[in-house]
């Protein structure tokens, strides 16, 4: 498994080669057409760690902007995870102490910081003619405006997305119509169930693989997210899983799981210690030609193409992709696109122009061109560079506009230890329903009742914390 283990090192090496090629080419790679300045400036950028920053973003930028002295600051936590630690408070403290010029935020953090006036707006920059906003993926700017309450306070250089991969040969063999973009979940399951369900597990054909989403709670949550449903109303602190909409979602998921058409991964079944790399590739039933459709991310394209070279006689030959399933009431959007690396300018920055220029460059056409061949599972936000050489339907990854998932909406406004406890209860109740030990109605009603009880308990604990902290402080200071 030397090849498998060395993947990350190969990736870093590829980034380095691409980066230096871009620099040596002598092309005008300055994002947005901004002019270089001879004046030296310092820029403090927040990122995961210094090594990954320079391999993924900083090497090319530094070569093209020698007048900017970059310092990378990271908020990576050391030591074991502490569930009692207030992560939001820790993050705010980190920002206050380090004061990075460029912040790296999640969508939720961007919304919070924008509301608190901690960020500078970027609308003017995106409206500049040289920024070429028309080549950005559809809906990106609208999504960022939604996060920012009507203004753009952050931009991402890349995004992650999923699509439905399908095996053309299997569909033709069984005379089944090919999948289409913007199918509903019901349509997807109906297509999957048209494939035969007989035969041994390791020999038969399956209509659909959804990875590790093989439990009722997981699959139902995925379907519910596409329909903009939420299990909890964070504002009113009410659990809302026992509703007709959620019942319909979990019934759809249950029917799909019990149909025999779905291939589900065993999370405990992957042992690669004695496998060759070829075995590893063929372990995937879609690559081996045993699954007609599979929900996957962009990285899977690289695995398919590698298998067609390494195990050509055994690997899938003809394939394509369509969009993930959608809600028929909202067929042009999906929560399956994510931007977990959003860059924003700190309102307290003393280097605002350098900070904006950095964001301009890492979201530019030129940066997308340099990084478009990395195949690291993400895509650049510029559509000109989302393509492959075999004319596959790559638009499936970005033609649906990004939408915020309601499943975990305002998660940070809930009591800190609530959601994990509620999720465990919901999972167990739905397992009982799937096994026929109780009705789906009873399972959802019990999950809601027990979940609400936990909500009340955790709210009470949260209210008691300030008093406990005050007593602790008095004791430590020796006051009575």
> SS-based structural class?
alpha/beta
With strands numbered from the N-terminus, the spatial order across the biggest sheet is: 10-7-11-6-12
Please tally the helical runs, counting DSSP H or I stretches of 4 or more residues. Answer: 17
| Total number of strands | 16
- Uncertain ranges: 1-35, 467-480
Whole-number tally of structural domains? 3
Q: Radius of gyration from the CA trace?
A: 25 Å
| CATH architecture label name of the largest domain | 3-Layer(aba) Sandwich
Strand content: 5-15%
By CATH reckoning, the class of the largest domain would read: Alpha Beta
Helix content: 40-55%
CATH topology descriptor of the largest domain = D-Maltodextrin-Binding Protein, domain 2
Largest sheet: 5 strands, mixed
Distance, first to last CA? 64 Å
Mean pLDDT comes to 86
Give your account of this protein's structure.
This protein is an alpha/beta fold. The chain has 3 domains: 2-160 and 337-402, D-Maltodextrin-Binding Protein, domain 2 (3-Layer(aba) Sandwich), CATH 3.40.190; 162-334, D-Maltodextrin-Binding Protein, domain 2, CATH 3.40.190.10; 415-477. 42% of the residues lie in helices and 12% in strands. The chain has helices at 2-5, 7-24, 50-64, 87-98, 107-115, 123-127, 140-147, 168-173, 185-192, 216-226, 244-258, 277-282, 299-310, 352-362, 365-371, 418-434, 440-477, and strands spanning 41-46, 68-73, 102-105, 154-156, 158-159, 162-167, 206-209, 232-233, 238-239, 262-263, 291-297, 319-322, 333-334, 342-345, 379-380, 401-402. Strands 10-7-11-6-12 form a 5-stranded mixed beta sheet. Helix 3 links the parallel strand 1 and strand 2. Mean pLDDT is 86; it is low at 1-35 and 467-480.
């Amino acid at each position: 498994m030397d090849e498998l283990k060395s993947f990350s090192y190969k990736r870093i090496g590829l980034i380095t080669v691409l980066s230096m090629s871009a620099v040596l080419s002598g092309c005008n790679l300055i994002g947005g057409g901004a002019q270089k300045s001879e004046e030296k400036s310092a820029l403090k950028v927040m990122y995961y760690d210094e090594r990954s920053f320079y391999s993924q973003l900083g090497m090319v930028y530094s070569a093209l902007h020698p007048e900017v002295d970059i310092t990378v600051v990271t908020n990576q936590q050391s030591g074991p995870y502490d569930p009692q630690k207030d992560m939001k408070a820790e993050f705010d403290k980190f920002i206050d102490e380090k004061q990075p010029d460029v912040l790296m935020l999640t969508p939720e953090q961007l919304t919070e910081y924008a509301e608190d006036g901690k960020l500078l707006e970027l609308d003017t920059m995106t409206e500049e003619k040289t920024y070429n906003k028309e080549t950005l993926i559809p809906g990106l700017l609208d999504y960022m405006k939604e996060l920012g309450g009507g203004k753009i306070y952050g931009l991402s250089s890349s995004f992650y997305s999923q699509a439905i991969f399908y095996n053309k040969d299997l569909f033709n063999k069984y005379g089944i119509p090919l999948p289409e973009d913007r199918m509903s979940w019901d349509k997807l399951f109906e297509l999957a169930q048209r494939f035969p369900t007989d035969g041994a597990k390791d020999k038969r054909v399956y209509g659909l693989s959804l990875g590790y989403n093989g439990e009722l709670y997981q699959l139902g949550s995925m379907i519910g997210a596409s329909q903009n449903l939420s299990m909890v109303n964070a504002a009113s602190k009410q659990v809302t899983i026992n509703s007709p909409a959620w019942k319909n979602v979990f019934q759809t998921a249950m029917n799909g799981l019990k149909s025999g058409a779905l291939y589900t991964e065993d999370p405990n079944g992957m042992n690669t210690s004695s496998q060759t790399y070829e075995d590893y590739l063929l372990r995937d039933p879609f690559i081996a030609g045993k699954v007609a459709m599979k929900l996957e991310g962009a990285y899977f394209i690289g695995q398919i193409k590698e298998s067609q070279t390494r195990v050509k006689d055994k690997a899938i030959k003809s394939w394509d992709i369509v969009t993930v399933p959608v809600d028929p009431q909202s067929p042009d959007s999906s929560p399956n696109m994510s931007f977990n690396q959003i860059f924003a300018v700190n309102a307290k920055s003393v280097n605002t122009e350098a900070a904006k220029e950095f964001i301009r460059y890492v979201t530019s056409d030129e940066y997308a061109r340099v990084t478009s061949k990395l195949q690291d599972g993400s895509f650049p936000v510029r559509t000109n560079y989302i393509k492959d050489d075999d004319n596959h339907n790559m638009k499936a990854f970005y033609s649906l506009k990004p939408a915020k998932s309601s499943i975990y909406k305002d998660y940070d406004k809930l009591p800190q230890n609530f959601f994990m406890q509620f999720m465990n209860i919901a999972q167990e109740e739905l397992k009982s329903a799937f096994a026929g030990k109780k009705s789906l109605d009873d399972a959802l009603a019990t999950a809601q009742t027990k979940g609400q009880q936990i909500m009340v308990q955790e709210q009470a604990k949260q209210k008691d914390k300030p008093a406990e902290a005050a007593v602790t402080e008095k004791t430590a200071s020796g006051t009575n």
